[in-house]
Amino acid sequence: MTGVLAASASTNHINPTAVAISVGIPFVICASIAVIVWAYFRLQAHRADAVAMAEYRKLAEQAVANQQELRTELARLTLKVEAVEKLMRDVG
Q: How many DSSP H helices and E strands does the chain contain?
């Protein structure tokens, strides 16, 4: 029985280098995968923001064009109203 205990005690010696390698390599691999996944989703968010900003720019350009068109139309209507007012003053 003492021989079994002596053999058991000699095999319980833990090699710190082996533990560091067997724990460290999977940890580094998992950490690398986590960083890659995080970077991928962050890139996708930036792409979505870029698409949204392009849509906002297009919308702003359309709004400016519409505003210029409305100003032109308003100027034409103002000239017509002034002509009608002048006609009413001349008649009345």
A: 2, 0
